[in-house]
Amino acid sequence: MTSKPTSPRPTLEPHEARVVVSAEELRYPAGSLVLLAGLPGAGKSTLLDRLYGLRGDEREPVAAGDVWVIDSRQARNWWARYLGPIPHRARTPLAQATHVWRIARAVLSGHPVVAHTRGTWPHILNGFAWLARRRGAGMHLILLDVPPRTARAGQHSRGRVVTTATFVRHCRRWRALIARARSGDLPPAASVTVLDRGAADRVRHIRFDTTPVRGG
Length: 216
Prior knowledge:
alpha/beta; 7 helices; globular
């Protein structure tokens, strides 16, 4: 469904979808896992940089008050010290595994988490949703939906271009995910927010309620 634009946004109810036209604030229940998903090059890291002042050279998750901010660049930077001569494609599985482990660790700690993910690996999303529910919270998706050509241009501008076969596979899975979100078919997410590039540029804050989350 499409929600009328308001600012600030109210906290989402479970299993609610919204396509945001204009909002300066996105709000979530206490202790939630918020995953910012999109095609490679869609602008996920750029949005996190702007919202949380990331520089791009961090090697560990960043604490923004009580919120843990986790970008996959942090894992890549951590491994770069040890895997410098190894080709990028060989580093990727280690960096991705470290990134996933860091998100899981943060969720189990009870902190609210805002993390970068491609969103095109269903088994990863299901695993994160299960962990969030175990902590008595929920997993919420922010889908940064840009045209493939825009994402491809973003890859070139950052200097990391995925192979054509890999990108085609991501695009196919992304289209399916977006179609589900827009139709209201949301599992395993508790809620989904779809942002185009313009709407993403207007977001200024991601807020969390303060009610404590019960332990698992």
